[in-house]
Specification:
Glutaredoxin, 4-stranded mixed sheet, 4 strands, alpha+beta
Length: about 80
């Protein structure tokens, strides 16, 4: 099974959508909440080059954000 990591904020609707898709697909993921955690936010930015959430990685490969995850799913990449 692939290792999925998702950087999130609690109030982010895109984070909720991305997590819902992964849950619906029965794909386990590690959620890394960056709310109030400067170190995790910096780690996310260093890994992805972006400061927005969600930021998603599968097997340490950068996927992107919520829309990117849905595009990956649309072409069968999550199956």
């Amino acid at each position: 099974m692939a290792k999925i990591e998702i950087y999130t904020k609690l109030t982010c609707p895109y984070c909720h959508r991305a997590k819902a898709l992964l849950t619906d697909k029965h794909l386990p993921f590690q959620e890394i909440t960056i709310d109030g955690n400067v170190n995790m936010r910096e780690e996310m930015i260093n890994r992805s080059g972006r400061a927005t959430v969600p930021q998603i990685f599968i097997d340490n490969e950068y996927v992107g954000g919520c829309d990117d995850l849905y595009r990956l799913d649309a072409c069968g990449g999550l199956d």
